[in-house]
Write a structure and sequence with these properties.
The chain is α+β, with helices and mostly antiparallel strands. The chain is built from six helices and 15 strands. The strands form three sheets. Strands 14-4-11-12-13-10-15 form a seven-stranded mixed sheet. Strands 5, 6, 7, 8 and 9 form a five-stranded antiparallel sheet that branches. Strands 1-2-3 form a three-stranded antiparallel sheet. Strand 5 and strand 6 form a beta hairpin.
Length: about 290
């Protein structure tokens, strides 16, 4: 029986995207690299646990879940989460950012200053700019100010982000224009928290980091992994948790790597994608281990 591996997720390093495996092994992902793996026959997807601890009951979780956690572990994971507003006394400085994912797709968010731009890479932000830095609650109040005064959301679904990646403006100036315009509107607002130090508009463009130049339109996305199924393709781009894979005779398919967690994965026994793929109704517009 082939050795099985468990993926703990996609991480972004200074060199680009990296798949991380149980035990600490890392697989660097470069453009053109073949990404291929199978799901063990008879396998069951199990909960990945919470906050570094294994799920005590090894609960089965649905294949379509991007969190790969049972209800109890999901609750525990969010019990001390800045994103879930369950922490108010974090002493670290936080940054407020404006992120752009495509025409008309802008959001506001916060991230710990020590994380740098990692949060933006993880979300698949095509470009972004910092808005200010300060204590957690000041950053939160600024985020709420922008949401209320400018109608800027704090979340954009991944299905929406994926739909526009192959049709983005070609130049960096075009891609960063909306972020710059929103930054200008934001700084004109009153009622900013006094403890938040404002940042000048200095847009950062990730199109090159993600490999989006000339990206072909995807024909669909993997909706879930299944026991005995396989995924195989050449990596043409990556953004956030998503890998854009050029498959054998079927065009480009998007794989959300969060769907890989919780499964036992083995070397691919097929050159094809044999897991369920949700087809797009129209072209999106606007072996020391596995690899």
């Amino acid at each position: 029986m082939a050795q099985a591996w468990k993926c703990t997720g996609l991480r972004w390093s200074a060199e680009g995207p990296v798949l991380v495996w149980d035990g600490g092994r890392r697989s660097a992902l470069t453009w053109g690299k073949r990404v291929a793996f199978g799901v063990a026959e008879g396998g069951v997807r199990t909960c990945v646990g919470a906050r570094g601890h294994a799920c005590p009951v090894r609960a089965a979780v649905p294949g379509r879940s991007t969190g790969a956690r049972c209800e109890e572990c999901a609750r525990l994971d969010r019990a001390h989460s800045v994103a879930a507003d369950t922490i108010a006394d974090d002493p670290r400085p936080y940054r407020v950012y404006l992120a752009w994912f495509g025409p008309g797709l802008l959001k506001v968010g916060i991230t710990a200053e020590e994380r740098g731009s990692a949060r933006l890479l993880e979300q698949g932000a095509v470009c972004f700019t910092w808005l200010g830095t300060g204590p957690l609650m000041a950053a939160r109040r600024t985020e709420e100010l922008l949401r209320a005064a400018l109608g800027v959301p704090d979340r954009i679904p991944y299905v929406v982000k994926r739909a526009v990646r192959a049709a983005l403006p070609e130049t960096e100036a075009e891609r960063t224009a909306e972020v710059a315009a929103l930054h200008a509107r934001a700084v004109r607002l009153g009622d900013w928290p006094e403890s938040l130090e404002r940042s000048p508009c200095q847009p950062v463009d990730h199109a090159g980091v993600f490999g989006l130049a000339g990206l072909p339109s995807a024909i669909g996305e993997v909706s879930e992994l299944v026991a005995g199924g396989a995924v195989s393709g050449r990596l043409v781009a990556a953004a956030g948790p998503d890998l854009h894979l050029l498959t054998e005779g079927a065009g480009t398919v998007v794989l959300d790597t969060r769907l890989m967690t919780g499964w036992e994965l083995v070397p691919a026994g097929s050159e094809q994608v044999t897991v369920p793929v949700r087809q797009y109704k129209a072209p999106p517009g606007v072996q020391s281990g596995l690899f």
